[in-house]
Amino acid sequence: MLKPQKKLNKRELKQDKLVIAWFKATDYLTHHVSEILIGLGALAALIAIIVWYNYDTQQREQEASVLLAHGKSAYESQLYSAAIDSLVKLVNNYGGTPSAATGTIYLANAFMQKKEFEFAEKYFKAYLDDYGSDPILSAAAAAGIAATFDERGNYAEAAKLYEKTAKDYHNSYRVPELLMHAARCYQLANQAEAAHRVLAQLLEKHPKSKFEEDAKMLQAELRS
Predict the structure, then answer these.
(1) Which one of 96, 115, 133 terminates a domain?
(2) What is the pLDDT of residue 9?
(3) 116 and 173 belong to one structural domain
(4) Of 40, 86, 123, 182, which sits most exposed with the smallest number of CB within 10 A?
(5) Rounded to the nearest 5 degrees, what angle is found at the Cα of 143, between the Cα atoms of 208 and 95?
(6) CA 7/CA 188 separation, integer angstroms
(7) How far, rounded to the nearest angstrom, does the alpha carbon of residue 195 sit from its chain's CA centroid?
(8) Residue among 176, 182, 117 nearest 144 (CA)
(9) Which CATH number do you get for residue 69?
(10) pLDDT for residue 133
(11) DSSP 96-123
(12) How many domains would you assign to the chain?
């Protein structure tokens, strides 16, 4: 006569489930070992790439910062040709680094100081095209482009660009200055109506700026 099977208690049931799970896991590993190894290899490769990229990025920025320091030092000493030499190397060889972004503005300003306005325009535009994330430097670059036209006597284009910069960067502390430059250039371009319009905007929206008196004087001059 068959004896009735012994009923498993909770502990034995738990152990039985663990044994089954172990055999299932072992069976899965046996049949998928190649896929697992490929996946682990891919993960290891990805980690290696990330580590290498971070290391390379840090190294590039360290090297770029040295060139930026040399360029800034020469610029502040008014050695503009020496500044340009360092900053051109920085911009050409370390593009995409934070130091190259700042260096692009210094390079454009160095060309402005040497009155090489075409090159200044080129690098101000390069900052806006390649970087442009910093609103202060972006406003400086946009105003710099306008200044290159101003210096070359293209007052109509300079006026439009100064006014556009004031509009695009309306939160900048430089807005009153930009509007004043725009009005001056409109006057020089014989566009009195546009000059009046910009001056009215300056006095209405920035009545306490340091350009208030200059704006009123230019208004009076335009009316005479």
Answers:
(1) 133
(2) 45
(3) no
(4) 40
(5) 135
(6) 104
(7) 32
(8) 117
(9) 1.25.40.10
(10) 86
(11) TSHHHHHHHHHHHHHHHHTT-HHHHHHH
(12) 2
Residue ranges for the chain with pLDDT beneath 70 = 1-25, 27-29, 31, 33-34, 36-57
8 Å CB contact between 207 and 175: no
Q: Is 134 exposed, middle or buried (0-12, 13-18, 19+ CB in 10 A)?
A: middle
Place of tokens 């590993």: 29
Rg for the chain, CA atoms, rounded: 33
At 29, is the secondary structure helix, strand, or coil? helix
What is the structure's pLDDT at 157? 98
Buried b vs exposed e over 138-155: b needs ≥16 C-beta within 10 Å?
bbbbbbbbbbbbbeeebb
In-domain check, residue 29: no
- Domain that residue 150 falls in: 135-224
- Record the pTM: 0.75
> Which among 89, 108, 133 is the end of a domain?
133
Q: Yes or no: say if 99 and 59 are a contact pair by the CB < 8 Å rule.
A: no
Structure tokens at 155: 């007052």
CB 155 within 8 A of CB 188: yes
Assigned domain for 39 exists: no
Please check whether residues 119 and 150 belong to one and the same domain.
no
Structure tokens at 163: 């006014």
- Which tokens sit at 39? 């996946």
Tokens 């300056």 map to which residue?
202
User: Do 144 and 167 belong to one domain?
Assistant: yes
Domain-embedded: residue 28:
no
- Report how far Cα 5 is from the mean position of its chain's Cα atoms: 76
DSSP 8-state assignment for residue 134: S
For 133, the 3-state DSSP assignment is coil
